[in-house]
Amino acid sequence: MIEINDLHKSYKMGSNVLHVLKGINFSVKEGELVAIMGSSGSGKSTLLNILGMLDTMDTGTYMLDRVPIKNLNETKAAQYRNKFLGFIFQSFNLINYKTALENVALPLYYQRMPRKERQDKAMKYLERVGLRDWAYHHPNELSGGQKQRVAIARAMAAEPKVLLADEPTGALDSKTSYEVMDLIQKINQEGNTILVVTHEPDIANMCKRIVHLKDGVIEKDELVNQVMAAEYV
Ligand code: ADP
Ligand code: MG
């Protein structure tokens, strides 16, 4: 599904160059649930944003669903992004003056799906995250965990190939974090490919595989021992 080779990324600030990603190689198969782990500032978000085509790489190659992703222009990148990728953020990024249902339906509006169809589909995905009864509520009436569930439904509604989550539990207490990760596990079991960026070992252990990012390279890439992970949590 995802294949990157020798990916490099630097940020230039005045005369300083910060070399964040220094030759990343990794691939993700369809149906995987992968954690990208590393300390704060290790480049996790930079990597996820490049995978999500929200940012461009300096050098390297990136194949997404067998399509080579070059540094595309904005319009082209947006088309690929909408077709292939769904995003989940730490801060939920919901629109406060829209209901949960309207938030989930919004990406479908941009796909020019007719109104009735997009409302039905949005309701279907709200149901899948257990929020049918909250469809007509606004984000400020929802708990943090519920807001993240709406965001997950919104990411899924466009039926992307890959879901990318950047610290999806970063703004939640630990009990709610586990609930959100349970949902992410369930969605993965239904066949979705999911990448989760986190700096929390407990959260990473709820994925099937952990990619450790350190000093700009992948330091370790390991499968999670599911039995041990269950005991740990
Ligand atoms: P993480 O998500 O692992 O905390 P980031 O990918 O956000 O790390 O950042 C990696 C490094 O790159 C940090 O040192 C950060 O300050 C720097 N950085 C991130 N984005 C930018 C940017 N747009 N301009 C300059 N430096 C940046
Ligand atoms: Mg980050």
UniProtKB/TrEMBL annotation:
PANTHER family according to UniProt: CELL DIVISION ATP-BINDING PROTEIN FTSE, LIPOPROTEIN-RELEASING SYSTEM ATP-BINDING PROTEIN LOLD
Organism: Zhouia amylolytica AD3
Protein family per UniProt: Belongs to the ABC transporter superfamily. Macrolide exporter (TC 3.A.1.122) family.
TM segment ranges: none
Organism classification: Bacteria, Pseudomonadati, Bacteroidota, Flavobacteriia, Flavobacteriales
Ranges of residues in domain ABC transporter: 2-233
MF terms (GO), sorted A to Z: ATP binding; ATP hydrolysis activity; transmembrane transporter activity
Protein's recorded name: ABC transporter-related protein
Any single Gene Ontology cellular-component annotation: membrane protein complex
Gene3D superfamilies, alphabetized: P-loop containing nucleotide triphosphate hydrolases
Keyword annotations from UniProtKB, A to Z: ATP-binding, Nucleotide-binding, Translocase, Transport
Any one Pfam family match given in the protein's UniProt record, by short name: ABC_tran
